Queue: 2 jobs
Job 1
Amino acid sequence: MTVKFNNRDPVYVQVIRHFKEKIAKGYFEPGQEIPSRRELANQLKINPNTAQRAYKEMGEQGLIFTEGNMPSCITKDEAVLKSVREELIIEAVDLFLGSIKSIDVPLSEVLELVKKKHDAESGEAEESK
Amino acid sequence: MKKYWKTILISLIIVTTIGSYYIQQAMASKKDVSFKIETTNGDKGEIDNLILQASYQNGGNIHHWLQISKDGSTNQISRTFFRDLVEAHEPLMFQKYIQEYRNFMRGKVLNPGQYFEDEDRLIYTTFQSNGRNKGLGNLFTLQIDTLDKKTNDSSSFEINMPDQVRYDWINERDIYIENGKIKILATSYLNGEEELHIYTVDENKKELEHDLILAKLESEERAQTSINILNDYNKVQNENYILYMVEKYKYLDDGERETIPSKMYLYNYLNNEVKELTIPAELKPYMKYMILHGTDIFIPVHSAIGLELKRYNIEKNQWEEHLSFKYPSIANDEEAPFLQITDDKLYLVSRVSDGHFFFIGDVRTGESLYEGKIINENKENLNADYSLMIEQIYNNMN
Amino acid sequence: MKNFFKLLNFEVNRFFKLYLTLIGLIIVSQFIGAIVESKVYMDRTDQEMYKNQLSMSQYIERHGVFSFNYVFESEWFLLPIFFSIAMLMIYVFFIWYRDWFGKNTFIYRLLMLPTERITIYFAKLTTIMFLVLGLVTLQILLIPIEIQIVNSIIPTDFQSNFSFYHFSSFEIWGWMYPNTFTEFILIYGVGLIFVAVLFTAILIERSYGLKGILFAIVYGMVSFGVFFAPILLNELSSGYFYSLEVFLMLLVMSFIVLGSAIWIANHLLKYKIRV
Amino acid sequence: MIEVKNVMKKYGRKQVLKGLSFTAEKGEITCLIGINGVGKTTIMKAIMALTPINSGEILIDGEKIRKESFEKVTFIPDTITMLPQMKICDAFTFMADFYKNWDPLRAEELLQFFKLDPTERIANLSKGNMAKVNMILGLALNVDYLLMDEPFSGIDIFSREQIAEVFTSHLIEDRGVIITTHEISDIEHLIDRAVIIDNGEVLKEFSVEEVREKEGKSVVDVMREVYRR
């Protein structure tokens, strides 16, 4: 996996976000093993210390857990996983709302469009399969 | 280890080679040229205290110095570096001085002509030039150092030579000291001119009292004239007379020089008189071999049957009948025979076919005291045409 | 100590190729010399004998037998030696400057070795002496061979016997192969001091750049002065001291000069050296 | 910890370091940033006692540099420090000869990682490969501190990436690294601390993550600020 980082947000924050997305998308099953922080650093071409920091944070947020000196795993706690998903969705929606506020259109109309677009894309997606 | 083989190998080679080279050197010098004296006749005791300071040439022109005594010879090739450092190569008399009067001898020129010794004093005199202004000659100061042999304390004083005493250099030949008067025999050179002087110094007044010119050579005549002093060069004790000749010679076409009739003079320290010696015609050819000894003048004449010593007595100023020493002919032209007369003894060393003939005779009675041979012990180290030169024979006793 | 030997070995290996060529040069040139010179001599002899109808003995009467000086004083023999000396002199400087100005600045590595830096100095110093003594040894080994070569060409009647202690009667040999081991040690000791002073001078230059050149020269002259002070002193005092005393003074001075050279070098390498 | 305490240095008349100070922690990558000729390299040489300083002091874990220190801190200059005629393996034997803590296995590993042939003569190496070998000479030593002078300058992009990768690997982990660069962007994410230097002085010394977190600025942003001042 590779990630394009921006230089302004702390790298460890970006790493955590990256993990959340993966979880939300379901690439990571609950309880799945994740790469050691060294592997991670190597894969993402980041400083091991940063990877360490990211894992620490995620540990505190309960996203991952480590038993003894076993490799860390994604949490099995449904609640947390669910919250991650919601968090991302809400984030996205907030962003969306924020941008359409500027051009005040009635919500119904917008939703129409959204629905249409979404179906079309997913349709293409179907075909492409 | 094995990646160091080069270095190790080379070091081994270096050490072994250089090591063995010097071991070989040591060996070589062990079985080095060495001479010994073989008594053929007379009293062995004669050579007990003798030391012959000599040098030999073995082809080439390097002089190897060595000393020969009854116990054989010191070989000089094996001389260690340090033996050189302790003036081992200097004439024995000076080695003795340096041992006994180390401090007094510091920085002194080792030229017997500048020394005087009697039982209680050793005196050294030297002319020091004030620098070199060629042509006009240098001004000189005469320095006189005196060592009291008993108390071993030394004193010194200087005399500035008067202005007319200007020379390029002054070469001292002999010192004579009699009741407070120091007489210095010296040859002085200026622009090719040569003069023989007697400088008389008053020890107590510390001043130059008298400057006598015995002989003078103009620059042009020096080409075929020279002043020879026939006294024993190494004698530092008083001798009442100075025997010198103004030798005239001409060069033969083969480059050899031939003495032509020349004048012989005798100077008397006691009364500052110079008188010319008249030499019988038949002796003239030998005059330049004359030897002054005490009140006698000897003229050696080598002959088939040995050596004839013509004798002239100065006091009686007359010729007395000669002494003759008989021994097998030693006529030999490669090496002129060495002759020395000290303490009424005649020492003669002359080349013979199988070595060198060594003879000691009594010059009062004319009898032979000792006959022997100086031979090279190990022939293989010496070319057949080696030559041995005796510089001086010392008697350890005095 | 271990590191010293490693470095020594390393430095030796660095020069080794050049060293071999040098040795080869000497051997070839001197052997040719031995052959050529003896041939020339024989031709001359034959002509001479033929021209004036001389028998061997008569000829030897007049001209003497073959002398090894013909060989040992010929260019064939001497030039390669002088060349080698020159090479080694140059290498005294090269052995340092190559590490700075070489294609890769190796001095970085040397100075970063976990060992006292003065060890590098000692290693290089020993290397030079090592190379010198190597050639000295080579010459000792070659002489007998060359004598063999000559004697194989010159008929026995013309041969003169040659032993090693006559060897030291030629001037340069007198210096390169003194008569006694003591003198050998002393002479090459002086050589060592000379190289040490040069090394230190080089390090001064390396440490202070352009200014350094000036310092280096001054330092060199001072060392030289100190070293020869006793002799000078003795000259001025018109031989006041006996040779033994002068020698001892020289000995002391040499130790002072060598000691200070090493001390300065050590200080520079520790605190002042620049890469 | 390597402490550089107000070090001053002159070259002739030119003052290259004007009382410069910073510290580099073990286990962190500290980057000396600054345009060429501000004395970055000089500092590194000064730390290694490869050039004298006029005043100030430099301590490695609290001590001045000693011969033992060279088993603890090493310097990778921007040129290779082995003889051209040497083979790579020769160079390694040399290192093994003199350094107690040379790790031949790691050297091997790195050779394979960089895909280098140990029998290659150093003279014949490409610039990139030479830089890599040079890296190995430093990295295969079990030292606590690594000083690297412009490891990325003037070499091809792939070599850069390979070398960059090394920084994220166990080879660097737990060691203190000081690295100089005049081109930060390649390694912006690799470093922990940045020390911005301009004509012989430290303009700013900071932890990059902190700055991103608190001020939301990239290293380049910070550089812009400090230079503008």
Job 2
Amino acid sequence: MVSLSWYLILAAVIFLIGVYGVIVRKNSIAILMSVELMLNAVNINILAFWHYNTQLNGVIDVSGMVFAAIVIIAAAAEAAVGLALIISVFRRKNSVVAAEMNILKG
Amino acid sequence: MLNQWLYIGIFVVISVFLPGVAILLARILSPKKPNAIKNSVYECGVETFDKTWIQFRIQYYLYALVFLIFDVETVFLFPFAVAYNQVPLFMVMEAIIFIAILMGGFLYIWRKGALTWR
Amino acid sequence: MSVQQVIFISFALLTVFSAIMVVSLRNLFHAALWLVLALLGIASLFALLGASFFAAVQILVYIGAIAILLIFAVMLTRNIMSDEVTQTNRAWGLAVLLVSVIFFIIIGQISSWSGFSQPLSEFTYTGQETILALGKGFVSPSGFALPFETASVLLLAALLGGVYIAMDKGKE
Amino acid sequence: MTISKWLGGLLSNWGVNDSWSTFILYLIGSAVLGTVALLFTLLFIWAERKIIGRLQDRYGPNRVGPWGIFQSVADMVKIFIKEHIIPSGVDPGPYHLAPIIVVASVLMVLAIVPLSTTLLGSDLNVAVLFLLAVGGLGEVGIIMAGWGSNNKYALLSAFRASAQMISYEIPMAIVLLTIVILSGSMSMNDIVLAQDIPFIILLPLGALIFFIASIAENGRAPFDLAEAESELVAGFNIEYSGLKFGMFYVADFLRAFISAVIFSTLFLGGWRGPGAESIPALGIVYLIIKSLLVWFLGVWIRGSLPRYRIDQMMKINWKFLTPLAILLLVVVMLAGKLVESAGSTIQAFTLIGLNLILLAISMWILRKNETRVEIIEVGSRDRPVARPDNILTKNPRGG
């Protein structure tokens, strides 16, 4: 039997790979990809706990599923606006490197 | 349920395997006589210039963006559609409000011209 | 080892490997393709958890839409130079250290919890029960009607914001 | 199915335990289904060429075998032993994987189609979503092909194809939503069982939208602008040769038939027909006959209509089909609840009536916004023509 701990450890590993990507990558699109990985790791966690809760209580736990759905919706919104921003910046500055997006710097 | 997914998984493996093996076989059977002109990029006889991976117009991105939003909207209406027969009218109205809010955005981008190919 | 464990481990390894490729490859297009593979692996894990709906949604939304959007964005913002220059900054050693420290802290913290090694049995729900429950939960006022409508507003905002930012302003 | 029971019994006699015998049965079933589908594609390619030929007043293939029936076999043998030209500068990973992914994404749909009462591949409880999701995988394959080829035409065409496919997925998904509302389930088998009255009668407008969207999704004429010869040379598969090209070709023709199978499962009652419940084999025959009819309609359209321009294609989708589909969805949602207490006959007639009203309104709107194209006569009147009595020197304005 696969136990809850397997899913939790896997989710932690993927989340931390995502964190590593966010810290290390220069390209802002790559950073966004890493953020997607992190959101997916969160979803693995949520659904693993959803399974756990449902199994423990014997009734289908709706809140876990709704939580996961909202995470996916938020990820979609984030990707749409984030990529639009990156493209918009790219057209002005011809660069997608996150460190060069410093127009607001005083 | 897992059994159903198992079948899907096997089917995925098979449907990757069949064309893969066919291509591999053909690769072994077919002659191999490459030369520089044969291997050059096809561009109607014109010498190719610059890199292929040039930039493309923004319109494609706009359509993909609108698609993403509507895709997400539709996907999360599916559970509601399954439950449709078991919920009263006012709950159906909630789902209609859900659609109506997004239709407002749809009308806005329509007026703005994001849906027009330029 | 049981069949389920073998399946889990193979998909987990696939996912982790592709995730590592996503954060380490220079070519962004290849990174996006590896991301697709990682998302597929995660979708199969969802199926293994008994969340069929989310497995399908994962493929449909993440691979069918978000990954395509990412690939489009990669192609739109392509610099001629971007493949040759290094894609990571200098802090990678520090980042590895930080990440592994966080990993051990997290695992150390949650492994003391009693439910940590609870085995997950296979669900007996085979039909539409889980999806039905989710659908009712989305629209019933005692359930999650408000988050559902708020999600719609969020999507609306993303649609308007994204289109407004990305569109050509002024056709000079 | 009796064969599977017999095989299962055989395996358990050999001392194979239950889960392994299920596994082996699934493996055999999917392998047989996949191979049969791929081989039947040869027949479809021949039939389509023949039909298109007759529609356009040509003979079509008529040399190899009676009515040219072995033409595609000959073509297959030829393409099998053709050289695989790998252009310099391709991106090897995506380039080699793309044809496999494209074919796989087409074949995978077969896994969820219920073939008869007892013979159904997988009764997945989210089959409808799976259907849409597999389309997404195909897009990834096409983008990989376009990118990997290192060719500007291929990349541009891949962009067009994927933009077209994702656009037309929206009206398709919304129509599927209406079907799920009527059947109350996302499993294909439940959808078939819910069709005491086929959904094409209850939702004629939905069926129309779905049919148009699936033609566009397949990238067939009149929506085949991803392979517009005059603009883009040959489409995203321009740099492929040998069997790799053949795979794109096969995927194209197979997809046409499989989407006809899906259409007849969703709207025409799938395997249902007189006597299909008692004799499962009859169900397969019904399904194939229905699918062939739908497929023939698609071929007919392909042979008759000219290609759309890309702006027209996008306009049809985003400014006509999508709003119409959403309107249909809302109307079905409201009407279903308002006449819930009435009898099933009244419900059915309400649905049909509303569908037809919506169809009439949309046709009226289309008529009103119709732009008449002025026919411009080609050639000017005073052009000097090379005729002995009208040579250039005699014409004062000539030259």
